[in-house]
Design brief:
Largest sheet: 5 strands, parallel
Strand order of the largest sheet: 2-3-1-4-5
Bound molecules: P1-(5'-adenosyl)P5-(5'-thymidyl)pentaphosphate
Low-confidence stretches: none
Oligomer: single chain
CATH architecture: 3-Layer(aba) Sandwich
Order of helices and strands: EHEHHEHHEHHHEHH
Helix content: 40-55%
Structural class: alpha/beta
Mean pLDDT: 94
Number of strands: 5
CATH superfamily: P-loop containing nucleotide triphosphate hydrolases
Shape: globular
Radius of gyration: 17 Å
Number of helices: 10
CATH topology: Rossmann fold
Length: 221
């Protein structure tokens, strides 16, 4: 039986993922398309507790602990929310998924790639996104946007070099050679995240309608 579409939004801090998911979900509702929105880390009772530990507590965490906490949150979210929604043929919009682990924990923190990918396979049970929309804004611009909202969380406080490595990693993920050697990621489409919210939404709607005329053709303005 066909399942729903799994659409992932990725990008550096303050790239506009949450804003764009909100706008897209409003358009899907207007078009009577069934959708579910989730974010990482979080989205389940255990995941919300993990979110509090990794983002809002001041304890030092080793890079491995941090990575495994993200994986644990992901395993809960995939099993309890994402898979059931896909089986009901809903569109599932995910605010960050394992590409964030690849950018922040493998490239940003320097953890070994093969071990992290193996842990991720366990967490996702091999689930591959139908499309990842990678919102591209300059790292410092995204942090400025996020700063305008208030105090930095534990990961946002990781320093300019860390955030520059993360932003460069995200760009590297759009290289077809990189994608070919990482089939678990599915297709990744770079979206210019600059400009006002409506301009960025129009780019996203166009990318989705061209990749999947059903069910996204009806939301392209
Ligand atoms: N993480 C996550 C890992 O290290 N490993 C992992 O495996 C995973 C899954 C999550 C943190 O965890 C890390 C990455 C993160 O550091 P979070 O709070 O969920 O923490 O962080 P983000 O996902 O980065 O959320 P942000 O809210 O910071 O970024 P968004 O969602 O990309 O941006 P958004 O939409 O909230 O917008 C930020 C601000 O900019 C404005 C908004 O109004 C808002 O104030 N804005 C715009 N302003 C002008 N023009 C536009 N086009 C705008 N779009 C949005």
């Amino acid at each position: 039986m066909a399942r729903g579409k799994l659409i992932v939004f990725e990008g550096a801090e303050g790239a506009g993922k949450t804003t764009q998911i909100r706008i897209l979900s409003e358009r899907l509702t207007e078009a009577a398309v069934s959708w579910v929105g989730v974010r990482e880390p979080g989205g389940t009772p255990v995941g919300d507790d993990i979110r509090d530990i990794v983002l809002h507590q001041d304890e030092e965490l080793t890079a491995a602990t941090e990575a495994l906490l993200f994986m644990a949150s992901r395993a809960e979210l995939v099993a309890r929310e994402i898979m059931p929604a896909l089986e009901k043929r809903s569109v599932v919009l995910v605010d960050r998924f394992f590409l964030s682990t690849y950018a922040y924990q493998i490239v940003g923190r320097g953890l070994p790639e093969n071990e992290v990918r193996a842990a991720n396979r366990l967490a996702t049970a091999g689930l591959v996104p139908d499309l990842t929309l990678l919102l591209d804004v300059h790292a410092s611009h995204g942090l400025e946007r996020a700063d305008a909202r208030g105090k930095r969380d534990r990961i946002e406080r990781s320093g300019d070099d860390f955030h520059a490595r993360v932003a460069n990693a995200f760009r590297q993920f759009t290289d077809p050679k990189w994608q070919h050697s990482h089939p678990e990621c599915g297709p990744i489409k770079l979206i210019d995240g600059t400009g006002d919210e409506a301009t960025v939404h129009a780019r996203i709607a166009s990318a989705l309608a061209s990749a999947f005329p059903q069910p996204f053709g009806s939301i392209e303005s």
